UniProtKB/TrEMBL annotation:
The lineage of its organism: Archaea, Methanobacteriati, Methanobacteriota, Methanonatronarchaeia, Methanonatronarchaeales. One of its GO terms (cellular component) is cytoplasm. This is RNA 3'-terminal phosphate cyclase. Residues 181-271 form the RNA 3'-terminal phosphate cyclase insert domain. Catalyzes the conversion of 3'-phosphate to a 2',3'-cyclic phosphodiester at the end of RNA. The mechanism of action of the enzyme occurs in 3 steps: (A) adenylation of the enzyme by ATP; (B) transfer of adenylate to an RNA-N3'P to produce RNA-N3'PP5'A; (C) and attack of the adjacent 2'-hydroxyl on the 3'-phosphorus in the diester linkage to produce the cyclic end product. The biological role of this enzyme is unknown but it is likely to function in some aspects of cellular RNA processing.
């Protein structure tokens, strides 16, 4: 049985999520030790337990250690994913991170419908609009197609956001991503239970800043009813390479600052170059391992290195290789001469 050191590399919750996905696709049980050992609150949080619960219900898995703050987890899937599941994280835990567990498994799944309740726009996690407008279109190049609907936004600390993911039969295919420079920028600036002018000011500042790169920019304004209050903005490139920038509002932070941060992040990604941005490069690692292919990225992060190390523990037939010194950095797959059986 595969034993994984959860403290390796970045050593965060990503190790849990990727392990669950790879185990499910390859039907390999694993034991994860030292979960989040270097964190101020080690072990499994509510967010991670929701991921375990989701995959347990989809695969009828045998699980040991799925308790709050547990530093060890055993997971053994009994079947490939299928069915309908509704899961409430119970906090403002990210629904986007929850979805990351299941997306790499969709090509082996039967028809799925997943409804998740939690945070859609929260710190330390990709905003739901990033998944819809950056990750999802890139995944489609590998044959991963699914519908992702935002039903209600949820901000920190109350959460209460709701999304729905549905899928159908699909076929995974290898892909060497090679894209052209983006030709357009789109975005969404949103606020919940706050004056509309906050979302407008976020968008106006971002638009002004983005004029520096000379691309047509269109940012949608959205106001919504939510639990508590919150705001944020996501801007992304289209008609070419997919990059994004995002920022969240908080008490005392001017709306102009929120818009400026998102624009600066996107500009940096575009100027750096690469087929996809550093966040998407990380998120695609499990799919790349399973499908084969390659892509360049704007930056290799510790998250990406950790994810690559982890999928290589599971998949002996397709190894991820990171060419960090290449400009731009490139991530590829290669088949070992004598893979383990």
């Amino acid at each position: 049985m595969l034993v994984i050191d959860g403290s390796y590399g970045e050593g965060g919750g990503q190790v849990v999520r990727t392990a669950l996905a790879m185990s499910t696709v390859l039907q390999k049980p694993f034991r994860l030790e030292n979960i989040r050992a270097g964190r101020s609150k080690p072990g499994l949080s509510h967010q991670h337990l929701s991921c375990v619960e989701l995959m347990k219900r989809l695969t009828d898995a045998r699980v040991v250690g799925d308790t709050l703050r547990s530093t060890e987890l055993f997971f053994e899937p009994k079947k490939t994913p299928s069915g309908e599941v509704e899961i409430d994280i119970g906090t403002a835990g990210s629904v986007s991170l929850l979805i990351q567990c299941v997306v790499p498994t969709l090509h082996v799944a039967s028809e799925l419908k997943i409804v998740a309740v939690g945070g859609t726009d929260v710190k330390w996690a990709p905003p739901i609009d990033y998944l819809k407008h950056v990750t999802k279109p890139v995944l489609s190049q590998f044959g991963i197609e699914f519908d992702l609907d935002l039903i209600k936004r949820g901000y920190y600390p109350k959460g209460g956001g709701k999304i729905s993911l549905t899928t159908r039969d699909l076929t995974l295919n290898s892909k060497s991503i090679d894209c052209k420079k983006p030709q357009k920028i789109k975005g969404v600036s949103h606020c919940g239970n706050l004056p509309r002018h906050i979302a407008i000011r976020q968008a106006q500042t971002a638009t002004k800043k983005l004029k520096k790169i000379g691309l047509p920019t269109e940012i949608e304004i959205e106001t919504c009813d939510v639990l508590g209050k919150g705001s944020g903005i996501v801007v992304w490139s289209q008609n070419g390479c997919r990059y994004a920038g995002s920022s969240l509002g908080k008490p005392g932070k001017p709306a102009e600052k929120v818009g400026e941060e998102a624009a600066i992040e996107l500009i940096k990604q575009i100027k750096t170059e690469g087929d996809i941005d550093k966040y998407c490069a990380d998120q695609l690692i499990p799919t790349l391992s399973l499908a084969g292919g390659n892509y360049t990225t704007t930056e290799i992060t510790m998250h990406t290195k950790t994810n690559a190390w982890l999928v290589n523990q599971f998949n002996e037939k397709n190894k991820i290789k990171i060419h960090e010194n290449q400009k731009p950095p490139k991530i590829t797959t290669q088949t070992p001469t004598n893979p383990k059986k």
